[in-house]
């Protein structure tokens, strides 16, 4: 049990406890997952075969790595002293939030480490690393190697920090995690770019989810002096330079805001345009608020939501169909655009053209959210009843 009353058998909390503790193991066995799934048997066993619960990755109220079976044999060995990095995600947002969650320990080590040791999220990926993963680690710990254990591996010395960041209550980050980010991450990146920045998703395509009507919103924002920025076309260093330079930032909700939050400041104004109805939005706003010490403007202006036909519920693959007039009013009220700006509502013909251009008109891949359809039907019935009542009252 920790001083906060919860050990690693409970979720990590931002106020301290095991999320800010460090354990060092000699001769530990690191075991990668065998199956590709959300919850996987994977993690760390001590030299005596006990499960190291502190090495587990938690998401909200449950661990998504659970105690693995002891391997029948361990052929790989790793000499030296290594920092446990946990699960290495290929998904950009999950990498930022979950694969970075142990790096807070680097400034708290009594001895240096030889590198950071991960396990792959997907077994088929093996020990492969991606460019953005390597660049991110280098921005946090310049020159420190990373390694991925693709098979059970005996490690001479493994330093296991608690999970200081992630999804759930821990999205606020522990004090030690936030301090490490603010003191170490991207310190040498010089601000470069305009004061007004819109972080776009419009080039990501159907498989990544997005905003229907985003290109039209971008034209309206350009008229207000905003640069339209597509982060996937730039290195992390270039992205961070833009985020540091901007004084007003508007973004479609998504992974880019997790990166922005790591270098954001209280003097920056931030607005987030929702593209889906999802609890992930609340976590994203919480992340920005606690890391940047500001209150982001969250704009919910969905006319409806388009969801994958094989999974008809809000997710990161959903498309939100936005109401430009609602967004314009919110941005004008809070000083992001001209106070007298009047953004138009799309006509039915314009709306239909967007659906066709995005491949959603008559598409067999996406359908309108059942929740939004029911909501619209209820609103139509209420309006019909109101008209009848008014007609009766005037009779």
From TrEMBL:
<dbReference type="InterPro" id="IPR049625">
    <property type="entry name" value="Glyco_transf_61_cat"/>
</dbReference>
<dbReference type="GO" id="GO:0016757">
    <property type="term" value="F:glycosyltransferase activity"/>
</dbReference>
<dbReference type="InterPro" id="IPR024698">
    <property type="entry name" value="Caps_psacc_synth_Cps23fI-typ"/>
</dbReference>
<protein>
    <submittedName>
        <fullName>Glycosyltransferase 61 family protein</fullName>
    </submittedName>
</protein>
<dbReference type="Pfam" id="PF04577">
    <property type="entry name" value="Glyco_transf_61"/>
</dbReference>
<feature type="domain" description="Glycosyltransferase 61 catalytic">
    <location>
        <begin position="92"/>
        <end position="259"/>
    </location>
</feature>
């Amino acid at each position: 049990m920790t001083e906060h009353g919860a050990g690693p058998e409970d979720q990590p909390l931002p106020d301290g406890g095991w999320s800010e503790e460090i354990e060092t193991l000699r001769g530990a066995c690191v075991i990668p997952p065998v199956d590709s799934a959300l919850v996987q048997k994977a993690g760390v066993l001590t030299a005596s075969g006990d499960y190291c619960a502190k090495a587990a990755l938690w998401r909200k109220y449950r661990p998504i790595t659970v105690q693995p079976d002891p391997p029948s044999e361990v052929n790989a060995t790793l000499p030296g002293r290594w920092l446990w990095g946990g699960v290495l995600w290929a998904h950009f947002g999950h990498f930022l939030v979950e694969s970075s969650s142990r790096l807070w320990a680097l400034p708290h080590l009594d001895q240096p480490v030889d590198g950071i040791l991960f396990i792959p999220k997907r077994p088929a990926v093996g020990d492969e690393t991606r460019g953005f993963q390597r660049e991110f680690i280098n921005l946090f710990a310049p020159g420190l190697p990373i390694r991925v254990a693709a098979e059970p591996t005996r490690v001479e010395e493994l330093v296991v920090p608690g999970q200081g960041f992630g999804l759930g209550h821990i999205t606020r980050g522990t004090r030690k995690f936030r301090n490490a980010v603010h003191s170490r991450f991207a310190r040498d990146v010089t601000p470069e770019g305009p004061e007004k920045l819109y972080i776009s998703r419009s080039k990501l395509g159907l498989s990544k989810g997005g905003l229907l009507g985003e290109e039209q919103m971008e034209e309206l924002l350009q008229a207000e002096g905003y640069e339209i920025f597509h982060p996937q076309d730039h290195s992390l260093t270039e992205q961070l330079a833009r985020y540091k330079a901007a004084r007003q930032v508007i973004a479609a909700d998504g992974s880019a805001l997790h990166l922005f939050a790591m270098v954001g400041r209280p003097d920056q104004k931030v607005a987030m345009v929702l593209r889906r109805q999802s609890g992930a939005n609340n976590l994203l706003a919480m992340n920005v608020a606690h890391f940047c010490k500001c209150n982001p403007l969250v704009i919910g202006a969905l006319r409806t939501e388009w969801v994958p036909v094989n999974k008809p519920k809000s997710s990161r693959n959903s498309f939100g169909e936005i109401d430009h007039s609602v967004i314009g009013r919110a941005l004008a009220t809070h000083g992001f655009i001209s106070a007298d700006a009047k953004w138009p509502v799309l006509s039915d013909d314009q709306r239909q053209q967007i659906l066709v251009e995005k491949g959603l008109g008559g598409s067999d891949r996406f359908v309108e959210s059942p929740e939004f359809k029911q909501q619209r039907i209820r609103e139509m019935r209420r309006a019909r009843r109101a008209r009848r009542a008014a007609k009766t009252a005037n009779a």
